[in-house]
Write a structure and sequence with these properties.
The chain is of the alpha/beta class. Helices cover 39% and strands 26% of the residues. It contains three helices and seven strands. The strands form two sheets. The protein has a five-stranded mixed sheet. It has a two-stranded parallel ribbon with strand order 1-2. It is elongated and about 70 Å long.
């Protein structure tokens, strides 16, 4: 069973979603199924089939969340330090072509969210950054072509 590295915040988010699926969604869906059963013939009852599908999706998500939590290896980023990029580091980069700055935190797969500035440790950019220090240049092959970055800062937040 392969461990999944994640921050404490990422683990808490999984816990919150699991509780929501179990304590809010599950009873709501069961109520929908009960109401739909009361509408008669189940073979042609679209509400019943939709509720059963929602139940299947919710139970699948619960199983997925429980699996991720069981395999989680929670790493306390606040206890990490150093000037080398590794899991949990917040890295400030500058695109060498556009001079545009970007800030990324390297996190576990389940908590990655590019819009929030968190990239998965298994992403091409994170893999290229691992082991690098301030001032290092990295080249990453992206779907849009090769990109070159310079590491401006490595922080631990």
């Amino acid at each position: 069973m392969e461990k999944i590295p994640m921050t404490a915040a990422g683990y808490t988010a999984l816990e919150t979603e699991l509780k929501h699926c179990q304590q809010v969604e599950r009873p709501r869906i069961i109520q929908q199924i009960t109401e739909a059963r009361g509408h008669g013939d189940l073979s042609e009852n679209a509400e019943y089939h939709a509720a059963k599908e929602a139940q299947s999706h919710n139970e699948g998500r619960i199983a997925e969340l429980e699996d991720k939590m069981a395999r989680a290896e929670v790493i306390d980023v606040s206890k990490l330090s150093g000037d080398t990029v590794k899991f949990g580091a917040t890295v400030t980069l500058v695109d060498e072509d556009t001079e545009k700055k970007q800030v990324w935190q390297i996190v576990g797969e389940p908590e990655a969210d590019a819009k929030s500035g968190r990239i998965s440790i298994s992403s091409p950019l994170a893999r290229a950054l691992l082991g690098k220090k301030k001032g290092a240049n990295v080249e990453v092959v992206t779907p849009g072509g090769a990109k070159a970055y310079e590491v401006l800062k490595v922080e631990w937040r």
